[in-house]
Design a protein that fits this description.
By secondary structure, this protein is an alpha+beta fold. About 50% of the residues lie in helices and about 15% in strands. The protein contains 3 helices and 5 strands; from the N terminus they run αβααββββ. The strands form 2 sheets. A 3-stranded antiparallel β-sheet has the order 2-1-3, with no helix packed on it. The protein has a two-stranded antiparallel sheet with strand order 4-5. The radius of gyration is 21 Å and the shape is rod-shaped.
Length: about 150
């Protein structure tokens, strides 16, 4: 059975991890978006991190605390794995690789992009990647961007 301080620590870590993953996205100001090939890197990073953390937590935990060590290690490892995969995904996003080389800019305020085609995801950008032309979406139609 987990002791009271370990339960509190696990709960605090889980709360902080949840808040830490949600807050940065809300504070961003985006320049535009595009469709990119879908990726499950963050899910894989979380699972691999949790597995490695669980094993490490079990090994490091003192006698009689193996279960608690495994659980705490899995939580911390999962959060770390998720964040490492997130950083790698941001690097992937920075290189653009937009579907049909179409990067859409927000020229008349923010709007929610249409759903992506199957196998693609919406990638948001804070800085505009280099393309010879940019696009805007108005009334469901694509137009070349002109200031």
């Amino acid at each position: 059975m987990m002791n009271r301080s370990l339960k509190f620590t696990c709960g605090a870590l889980l709360s902080a991890a949840t808040l830490g993953l949600a807050l940065p996205a809300a504070a961003q100001s985006y320049d535009g978006w595009c469709y990119q090939k879908g990726s499950s890197a963050r899910t894989k990073g979380t699972v691999i991190g949790a597995a490695a953390g669980g094993v490490l937590g079990n090994v490091v935990a003192g006698k009689g605390n193996k279960t608690e060590g495994t659980i705490l290690g899995a939580i911390v490892g999962g959060v770390i794995g998720n964040q490492v995969a997130k950083k790698n995904k941001e690097k992937e996003t920075a290189s653009a690789n937009c579907l049909n080389s179409r990067y859409y800019v927000y020229d008349r305020g923010y709007y929610e992009p249409p759903s992506p085609p199957d196998g693609y995801r919406i990638a948001y950008f804070t800085q505009r990647p280099y393309y010879s032309s940019y696009w805007v979406k108005r009334d469901g139609e694509d137009y070349r961007y002109r200031r």
